């Protein structure tokens, strides 16, 4: 059958000279016009999805995506779900409204044309097309990070380079058979290196210790979500880690429950330090504007909570990281300059998803003058119509457990003035005091939390 050897694209011309005796002629013309995997969809999938959906995807910050879009067989098998997820907007994962396109690093927007093409491809039966010119996986999805991680002496691998200090759980965390969703806040201990002196940190990385870690958020190690690599600051930017820090990490474990699904997790974290003589111009800090005074009535589908936060000094704004739990529905962060009164929307997340803790990191740090105000607005859905809602009959207040709520608007910043701090020389009193004070505050805050949830034991 000669036609089988002809690429579908070229079938378009076939009917021009083929005889009418070819009964399947009409069907062939239709097939020719619909997109195929090798000729059309593969390029779109690799551009938008292969960062995570590929066979050798580095396990960056947690769960790896469930299939590879670089394999026709897998993409075809998942085609109906691909269409669903494109239509409901949950893939590719990104929270910021399209009005912010161009503002943040690692943003993920799929263009209307790309989306249309994939939906058409699925609707037309997810045909294969012509594999003859297929580029290699590497050409299709070049790794965003260094191709090879650095290997530490103990065999652990790190994308940011071999850490100067490592922290780990006292013992691996057992995630029980019956567990589906669990979010303990766990204390980490020093596993290598020395944290007994204050350190200037250049980079941090969280290494997931199992595939059931969906994401995690740590006070000093930053966040890990799928697709996000280590936090590496530009030269001259970094944060001050106080001596003997209490490093905690809030783990989000998500898995199927049932016999044989128990797993031991040994997630670890690493710090890279600046070296004596390096100069720190920008001391990265973060603060968490929040309103603890919330009481979300049972069943309320659209509870709104606001908070106003004044910025006291000239700053460079680096990143925004809003955080709520299962009832979080949408969040808006607005900036009011001192001359006011208009507000500029810094971030609008119309469809907040607790499963994806994004850091909205500016491509270019943004200057904000002293006296500006940050207006935080969160909306919550405590109704039964919210599929993530653990209990629509509960009145929900601010609190650490995932069944409580939060309405945080953490942001990362540095003072606008370059500091010229030389690493190894005395640390400015004020900075040290602030880091220590913060550490004490964290210790107080976390005292009751460290073991929160850990009492859930596997019987
Ligand atoms: C940043 C990484 C990332 C990108 C980019 C990404 N995905 Fe995903 N995807 C995931 C992860 C992780 C999961 C696992 C499900 C989860 O935990 O939410 C997933 C799950 C899925 C699923 C299965 C959902 C289900 O209901 O079981 C589909 C289908 C999917 N992605 C399609 C896509 C498509 C299509 C694109 C590109 C247009 C894409 N994804 C881009 C990370 C990603």
> Can you give the mean pLDDT?
86
Strand content: 25-35%
Number of helices: 8
3D shape: globular
Q: Assign the CATH topology of the largest domain.
A: Jelly Rolls
Number of spatially distinct domains:
3
Number of strand elements: 27
- How does the major sheet shape up? 11 strands, mixed
| Computed Rg | 25 Å
Low-confidence stretches: 1-29
Q: Span from first to last CA?
A: 63 Å
Bound molecules: heme C
Label the structural class. Answer: alpha+beta
CATH architecture field of the largest domain: Sandwich
Assign the CATH class of the largest domain.
Answer: Mainly Beta
The percent range for helix content is 10-25%
Structure report:
This protein has 459 residues and is α+β, with helices and mostly antiparallel strands. The chain has three domains: 34-140, no CATH class; 150-280, Jelly Rolls (Sandwich); 285-417, Sandwich (Jelly Rolls). The chain contains eight helices and 27 strands. A hairpin with a 6-residue loop joins β21 and β22 (343-349). α4 packs across α6 and α5 (72-87) packs across α6. The longest helix has 18 residues, at 429-446. The protein is globular. The structure holds heme C. Residues 48-49, 51-53, 63, 65-66, 78, 81-82, 85-86, 91-93, 108, 110, 214, 226-227, 355 line the site of heme C (HEC). Heme C binds next to α5.
